[in-house]
């Protein structure tokens, strides 16, 4: 059993009691809700004549179904309009703050929480969305839940849970040029497997992690769930505090910041903390990673050959064969040169301002390949505004990218942004499951945002390290 | 207002015929594609379970166990490793339950999926690869054969064979004692919850 880790401390701080099932009743410090997984939970509450217990610890946004082109109401899609109306009514009746599109604060739930300072170290955070692990980047204990559990949290402010084990993943050294946080997490999942983290919470540590900004840490924690770990976190440090100080929560209240800082410091894992498992990865050796298959664990370094199914462990072979047939890739070859039809720069993994800035530097002075449909979907309205003010929108549009409004968009194709037929997509999102991007024959290749740009420009998967930034400042 | 726990049935035992769904890493996007989630209730999701694997572009049935007459009445699904990985959507187990599934036996399950199943009173019990493969083969040959999933004893019995399976401790206790509806259970501790909330630094500092 782990001891003295951030996970142990935050868990203990929030434990209310032990339930007859042996599970812990854990208090939830922040409950984020959105339009897809919450309406049924509000319905269950009404059936039982229950009220929302902690409306002031709850915050809503709309992201999954929101159109990213024409957002005028009512939405063109009746089903989307119904879901939005239902959410509006539910939050109004319960008195829950709602970052709806008219506030200018709307966006993907895992982008707006951190940017508004709702997400803080040492909190327990849940949301009916598996990528809630993102918020662990701030040293919070954050995980996705199902709709019946949303009902639990709405009704009681708590969740019933069993304690998990903690695996420390230490990424040593320094990431090379062109290698990003996204590549680190794709490599972790490739090595440990899509189910390697089941039963574990991941603590990401080591110089390569500590030297990342908050956006990079979020990209890594975001995909913990793709490795089977329901939650992942990074210990809070000065980088975390610098971000927090600039958020709505603390910008005008430095005293509150100072009052809370000792708590944030206190939840950091102890130097002599005990872990259930420790894995070390040499960050110096990493290169950009792309997926060749239909699970996030089926990744490969950009210069490395796609593995032959027979060279994989026995339990991975069938899945690999089916994936290679679907993706139409050949073992022994690299992914370089794999033709793409669509480039998607967006999602809760990689649509923050720092992601768009980095990508834009590579776009400058270039054009999207004539056979490629490319789009940028900012993670939030704030990211969108900031990017427009900085001129990033112009850079992307001049190159031939479509510039959209904020939402989940083509990450999961619940709005009009979908792959058609067997289109192949270079995507900065988090899942390459069959059918994920809206077409069951669609083919998704996951990669970092600059690799998406490189693919958009060349019309094929490209090693971004071979492309220089064109200096047209 | 607290709901009575009297209405929560105990699920110590599930019996029914089986249906094999083969393959590792079957994700929740396959179990229920996102386009069927544009709904505000779970009603009617059963018909969309595994939709893209069951139907072609013209909505014509494809070869899939869930389309076969012999498995139409099945209630025990037999799956392989990391079943239910990916999204947290409860729509996935809701769709399976509404199709007719009461229990799932597999090599392993993704955590959020298993938690969602528990919230619906659906046991997710595990056994090793060989045991599962043999059970899947038996189900293929005996589509009308009864499978007994004994949650309390942690066994699965079929065709005169009884094998040991594993049920997570909390899940077993919750199902067998009928305390898998955690809302009422946790609601009864409202006083302690309020106290806990008020003791947290980040909530106290709001005052």
TrEMBL record, chain A:
Keywords: 4Fe-4S, Amino-acid biosynthesis, Branched-chain amino acid biosynthesis, Iron, Iron-sulfur, Isomerase, Leucine biosynthesis, Lyase, Metal-binding. Residues 293-314 are annotated as: Disordered. It comes from the Archaea. The keyword Amino-acid biosynthesis applies. Residues 8-459 form the Aconitase/3-isopropylmalate dehydratase large subunit alpha/beta/alpha domain. One of its GO terms (biological process) is L-leucine biosynthetic process. Pathway: Amino-acid biosynthesis; L-leucine biosynthesis; L-leucine from 3-methyl-2-oxobutanoate: step 2/4. It is an enzyme of class 4 (lyase). It catalyses: (2R,3S)-3-isopropylmalate = (2S)-2-isopropylmalate. GO terms for molecular function: 3-isopropylmalate dehydratase activity; 4 iron, 4 sulfur cluster binding; isomerase activity; metal ion binding. InterPro entries: 3-IsopropMal_deHydase_lsu, Acnase/IPM_dHydase_lsu_aba_1/3, Acoase/IPM_deHydtase_lsu_aba, Aconitase_4Fe-4S_BS, Aconitase_4Fe-4S_dom, IPM_dehydratase_rel_enz, IPMI_cat. Pfam families: Aconitase. Its EC number is 4.2.1.33. Its cofactor is [4Fe-4S] cluster. Catalyzes the isomerization between 2-isopropylmalate and 3-isopropylmalate, via the formation of 2-isopropylmaleate. This is 3-isopropylmalate dehydratase.
UniProtKB/TrEMBL annotation, chain B:
One of its GO terms (cellular component) is 3-isopropylmalate dehydratase complex. SUPFAM superfamilies: LeuD/IlvD-like. InterPro entries: 3-IsopropMal_deHydase_ssu, Aconitase/3IPM_dehydase_swvl, AconitaseA/IPMdHydase_ssu_swvl, IPMI_Swivel, LeuD. GO terms for biological process: L-leucine biosynthetic process. Gene3D superfamilies: Aconitase, domain 4. The keyword Hydrolase does not apply. Keywords: Amino-acid biosynthesis, Branched-chain amino acid biosynthesis, Leucine biosynthesis, Lyase. Pathway: Amino-acid biosynthesis; L-leucine biosynthesis; L-leucine from 3-methyl-2-oxobutanoate: step 2/4. This is 3-isopropylmalate dehydratase. It comes from Halogeometricum pallidum JCM 14848.
